[in-house]
Amino acid sequence: MARWLADRSLTVLNGPLAHGIPTWVGFRDDREMSSIIDMFLTNASLLSPRLDIASDLSLGSDHRLLTLSFSFAQSSASESSTDTSNATVHPRRLWNLSRLGEPDPCQLYQDTFRSSSAPLLSQLKRLVQHPPSSRPPIDDLNASLNNIIYRSLDSSVGDRPPRPSHWKKYWTQQLQDAAEYRNRCYRRWRRAFGIDKVYWWHQHQQANVSFRQAVIDAKRLSWQTFCKSLESDFSKATAKVKQLKRRHQTSASFTHPDGPATAVEVMARHLASVYDGHLLPSVRPPAPPDPSSLGLPFGPPGSSPLVVSPGAAAHTPSSTTHSTHSNTSIFSPATLALLIGQLPTRKAPGADHIKAEMLKPISTDLSFLLSWFFTLCYQWSYVPSLWRHAQVYPIFKKGDSSLPSNYRPISLTSVFRKLLELSLSPWLSSVSPPLDLAQGGFRPRRSALDQALCLHELIQSYYRRSHRFPVVAFLDIKSAYDTVDRRVIWDALSRSGASSPFLSLLVHLFDDVSVSVLVSDHSSVPFSPVTGVLQGSVLSPHLYSVYINTLPALLRQVAAPATHLVPSSGSADAGMVPVNSLLFADDVAVIGSAKSVKEMLKLCQEHSLSLGYRWNPTKCAVLNHPQSSSSSSSSTLPSSSGRLQLYDTPLPLVDEFVYLGVPFVKSGLSAPSLVSLRSPGVLKVMAILNKIGVNRQGFSLLLCSRLYATFARPKFEYGLAISRLTATDLKSIENLQDRCLRLLVGGHRTSSTTIIKHITTLPSMRHRIDVLITRYCLRARSLPSSCLLSLLSTTLPVSRIKVHLEKNPLFMALPSPAPSSDTRLKTFFRQYRERQVTSLVTSTTQVLLRACRPALVVDPILYVPATRAERSLLVRWRLGWLPGKPEDCPCGHDRRSRRHFLECDLIPSFLWSDLPRCPPGSYPIDFALSSLPLGRSARCPPWWSSLLLMLWHIQRLCRPDRYYPIDSSPGALWYSRSSARSD
After folding, report:
1. Distances in Å between the alpha carbon of 648 and those of 586, 595, 629?
2. Which end of the chain is more exposed for a tag (fewer CB within 10 A), N or C?
3. Where is the domain boundary, 609, 634, 668?
4. Are residues 562 and 598 in the same domain?
């Protein structure tokens, strides 16, 4: 070992810091044995190292607790990395924001902010109405605003330090006392002699058993309290389960052997090389003019661009200037208050630590202040540096987690920047050049499913025209957002009529940014990117669409003759243009013959070189090329004359490709592939949910079913609305849902789920698919005429929507005219399903289903006041798990069955007489369950305890090998609540 340590320049710290002190103590053959087997190794120089080995702690292990504390030597840190010393620790500031939901702290927060912000508001008004000759200290004003919010939070809700890593929710003072008593007994045993050693060992063993049992009881009680707290508030349950689900999902984070300080610098160097503009062409659009050359300050929004100049600032009447700052401005307080209310919560803040939850309670006062602040920024084409600083958090994509290139840089920016961008969004949409009809990404009234259906229709149209399926090339842009030449965007906006004041503000907002990498609370040295738009910015998707907007028109020059034509502007009188490409942001698909696709790839290459971005040939794919081999899903063309390539790199040939989350084969959408594609992800999500409490030992069945419908079912619903499903596909989808539902109750792989769906009102997937298709068809009818899907529907002789989707029974049952609001549509869906459920329950031959209520309501057994054991009895009876298999009854007269229990001697006969009288042909217990009152505030029926006691006897007969303690007062929880309400 000494040679191994010397070869690696490692030092064992146990020697100089704890020489001869054992780290392992055990007993073998009534003898105490010890050894040093737990060691600290290092190759660094440590300052003030200290190694503590706890010998008097009872840990239930032969190993002792080791604690090492030290400081890094400056020389060692500088030797390991010259840039690491520049990295800074950037811990988040935390407050008790949950207290803002309480009336008193929230009111105190509002009052404190209103009084503290009044001087700042007056100062902002004065600066806007009487502009100075030079730019005011906007960064200092922003710092003042942040400090006002910080102080208001400190005085109202208080800050919250991060919880230590060893914090446990179930830990109480009683457990702490029990742990200390166990350690005290352990120390007394270690130091005792003779007979006292036996006594204290016995005491320690008893204390250890008591402590472990107390921990188990505390965990169980804490878990039950947690589950119960989520039952009454589904929104709270959804947020909490989402948080727990995120914790259980494995996602790699970027690390470095030398620690997080080095990791952020390595990632920063990689991103700086991406953003450095090395792909930019030599010929570029001119840079936008400097705002100072346009005559600062500009007038407030709504007035002429050059209302106020530095020299004339003192001569401008305040009333005139104030009148221009009206509620019609894009920075009006009403608009900003509305935008603050729309901000998403539970999002990571920017460098200023401010989150949307902090702004919503003070939105009324803050909107007036921000209205003047944004106007001031507009006047001087300058925003605070904190708003222009992005903390990039790397999100792992796939591949080797140690490579920085396998991470997606997500920008965390100030929430005030987000508000400013949201305010500018309507203006940007109005002044942008018209986006090509082939672009469907991040545009109003368009979706990824629309674009996928458009691709299917174009493939089918090409086949009808040429009697062969087209070649489809799916193209991927390398680091799409990060390599954008922003000058292309500013030039396009300028040519389309964007005014100088707003355009100057937008240019400043994106050109003068700084970026630092944030990993494990460590931040790198900021750098300024030459190219790119921030991923995570509100305006970045639209700006990218402007950037790539010239590509579809370029590709139309080489469209194949069989390419479908649509009106260029959505009007029947407009000229017809071919649709041979589809874009959804940076996802590109080109359609045509092999020859035309080859020519389009050449144009794509030329377009990328002229704009300064690059395609990624290894992530592109070609579907249905005539020379591709059907037996290979990732081969490349052997012939250089007919191969499809980018930058002299052949593109992979595939038989199936997932475009926008939907699988495509040569004929278009593939429903069987869609089901097989979704299944692994759905089962993975269900496994995570099952682990965090969506099971029969965790949350109630009612909450579990709602969580399944919220988190798991949407995973395999995506794409079903535009798919043509066969009976085999429907059966596969139903089986997938059944597998998920069995996890809720712990059923075996063939157990029926019909009762689960009925008592929780979960629809079958057949009905759910009909609902999705009906909603999609109604939405498609209301799309603007300029949408590509509308253009295809009106120009194609045959479309999937008209021929297949609108033929589903639910859509055909719609009244005329169709419901105009979502509320009326939901009412129609419910009435339609109620008729189906009533017909099914009354006509079915399934005994358990006929025993349920013939109505579309949640079964009261899922929510009436009951203990976990009582509700388990009720649910298992409904599911048919009681009586279970027909085995011999302990009474010895017959086998266990529903019929036998009516006459079994081991069940007290008076319990049957206590139940409500049932009509002929009905089972007494089933009738009693169906007679339970609806509503969570209903009074307890008098026979409730007899019903529960009856089920307890049946459970005991079905499992005579187990012990089931009898409740002295079954049903007491519901009785007590009913009595409390009556009092």
Report:
1. 22, 17, 21
2. C
3. 668
4. yes
In terms of domains, do 456 and 577 share one?
A: yes
With tokens 């589950």, the residue in question is 227
Q: Are 797 and 457 in contact (CB under 8 A)?
A: no
Contacts with 493 (C-beta within 8 Å, 6 or more apart), sequence order: 428, 431, 432, 433, 503, 506, 546
Q: What phi-psi label fits residue 702: left (phi over 0), alpha (psi between -120 and 50 degrees) or beta?
A: alpha
Of 304, 299, 298, 303, which Cα lies nearest the Cα of 328? 303
Which of 49, 80, 111 lies at the terminal end of a domain, its last residue?
80
- Identify which of 358, 482, 337, 365 has the alpha carbon closest to the alpha carbon of residue 415: 358
Give how far Cα 498 sits from Cα of 141, 380, 507, 512, Å.
28, 17, 12, 19
Q: Is 896 helix (H, G, I), strand (E, B) or coil?
A: coil
Residue 966 forms part of a structural domain: yes
* 407-433: burial string, b at 16+ Cβ within 10 Å, e else: bebbbbbbbbbbbbbbbbeebbeebbe
Contacts of 44 (CB under 8 A, 6+ apart): 72, 73, 76, 80
Alpha-carbon gap, residue 175 to 180, rounded angstroms: 9
Type of residue found at 523: S
Question: Is residue 874 located within the same domain as residue 728?
Answer: no
Q: Report yes or no on 392 lying in a domain.
A: no
- The rounded radius of gyration (Å) of the Cα atoms in the chain is 35
List, in order, residues 6 or more apart from 915 with CB less than 8 Å away.
924, 925, 927, 928, 943, 946, 947, 950
- Number of domains present in the structure of the chain: 6
Task: Let me know whether 543 and 616 are in one domain.
Answer: yes
The mean pLDDT values, 10 residues at a time, for the chain of 983 residues are 85 89 83 88 86 84 88 48 55 89 95 97 95 95 97 92 78 94 92 90 94 95 90 89 86 85 93 95 93 82 42 34 48 95 92 95 96 95 96 90 91 96 94 94 92 97 96 96 96 90 94 93 92 93 96 96 87 79 95 96 97 96 78 47 88 96 96 94 95 92 96 96 95 96 93 96 97 96 93 92 94 93 95 95 93 95 94 95 90 92 92 93 94 92 95 92 85 90 70
Domain assignment present for 385: no
Token pair listed for 471:
């070649």
3-state SS class at 349: coil
The answer on 906 and 830 residing in a single domain is no
CA-closest candidate to residue 578, choices 545, 594, 601, 600: 600
Q: Is residue 726 part of a domain?
A: yes
Shared-domain flag, residues 603 and 461: yes
For the record, the structure tokens of 576 come out as 């017809």
User: Do 48 and 71 form a contact (C-beta atoms < 8 A)?
Assistant: yes
Are 203 and 126 part of one and the same domain? no
Q: Give the end-to-end CA distance of the chain in Å, rounded to a whole number.
A: 78
Residues 75 and 34 in one domain: yes
DSSP 104-128: HHHHHHHHHHHHHHHHHHHHHHHHH
